[in-house]
Design goal:
10 helices; 10 strands; 354 residues; eight-stranded antiparallel β-sheet; alpha+beta
């Protein structure tokens, strides 16, 4: 929080004109001087009943001010968790926004959420070898492992646009920016987004968080700068890690943007919208924790539109440990006994120590 201080200037006494003697107000007017005065400083020319009247007004105003101050203090205490959570959500949103531009393209000012980038790339990313020639070696190196900063992603993307590399229509400008990012290998992986958002939430660097040598965030169980938390106690800014299931080699990392316990009305609506599988999953006694997470997600082998930055809702059934989730590739609701993903299982949830 920025604290701004204004210089206070006071004129010397000899620059001030002598105060004029104020005219006495009519008897029916409220006297500001008496309303603000201490009892001992009231004019001896005022009748006792007038002084008593204004003393009563002052006492009433002081009582009201005290009551308002007490109510305000109570409201602040009651709202503290929400205020902290709001600040964490805003920090995560700022991270997404920082990775998204804005860009100047085709006479427009556009934003585009960052695309996914995995070390090594895919065969469909045909133009990665050209990246160095267009954006330079430092930005190319920053992209190579999916760990680029927001400034690096934006700078590389704008350089590609300026070089005329934006794909032609069809598609709106933002969609084509992301298509270009995929082709040239500009983007981030899940650990990069999660770490940058964590920096924004905590105000700490990788070194201060003890993850400067653990960029994939696989060692949080042993990291003294973090504590493990239960799913029911999740709050915005916590980190969740997933382990790969057999056949996969890379896990996943996300940052929690929100967590709520689903009400009966919410469960009914989710079941109505997503069909029989969701209805059956939500019919258990629960409780069902709805966990909203942000990350950068895989884009398949061909750079699907669902890849890169995305916000996902996960649902955890505390009664049996199962998970409900929405599979981006198919748009369908899925259920898994061990994690909110077809390819990964839940490992743990962590909170950075203050």
């Amino acid at each position: 929080m920025d604290i701004r201080r204004a210089d206070r200037r006071e004129a010397p006494d000899h620059d001030l004109e002598p105060a004029a003697t104020p005219a006495r107000p009519p008897p029916t007017a409220l006297r500001r001087d008496l309303l603000d005065a201490d009892l001992g400083s009231a004019s001896s020319h005022d009748p006792p009943e007038l002084l008593a009247f204004y003393a009563g007004l002052r006492a009433q105003a002081q009582a009201q001010a005290q009551a308002q101050a007490q109510a305000s203090a109570a409201a602040v205490l009651e709202a503290a968790p929400t205020t902290r959570d709001d600040a964490a959500r805003a920090a995560i949103d700022r991270t997404r926004a920082a990775y998204s531009g804005p860009y100047s393209a085709e006479g427009q000012r556009v934003t585009a959420a960052p695309m996914f980038r995995l070390t090594g790339g895919y065969p469909s990313q045909t133009k990665i070898p050209e990246l160095r020639t267009i954006v330079g070696q430092p930005l190319t190196d920053a992209m190579a492992f999916g760990q680029a900063s927001p400034a690096q992603v934006v700078a590389a993307t704008q350089k590609l646009i300026d070089a005329g590399k934006l794909p032609p229509p069809p598609g709106d400008v933002a969609a084509r920016v992301r298509q270009m990012q995929w082709q040239y290998g500009v983007g981030i992986d899940c650990a990069s987004f999660t770490r940058r958002a964590l920096h924004a939430v905590t105000g700490k660097s990788d070194v201060q968080l003890g993850i400067n040598h653990d960029l994939g965030m696989r060692g949080l169980d042993w990291n003294p700068h973090f504590v493990k938390v239960k799913l029911a106690n999740l709050r915005p800014g916590d980190v969740i890690t997933l382990d790969p299931k057999p056949g996969e080699t890379v896990g996943h990392n996300v940052i929690v943007r929100d967590r709520t316990a689903a009400s009966d009305a919410q469960k009914q609506e989710l079941g109505r919208v997503h069909g029989p599988i969701a209805q059956a999953f939500l019919a258990s006694r629960g409780p069902h924790e709805v966990i909203e997470v942000d990350s950068s997600w895989g884009a398949g082998a061909n750079g699907a539109a669902y890849g890169g930055y995305r916000r996902n809702p996960w649902i955890h059934d505390a009664s049996n440990g199962s998970w409900g989730y929405f599979e981006a590739a198919t748009g369908s609701f899925r259920v898994s006994p061990d994690g909110p993903s077809t390819f990964d299982r839940f490992h743990g949830a962590y909170r950075a120590r203050p």
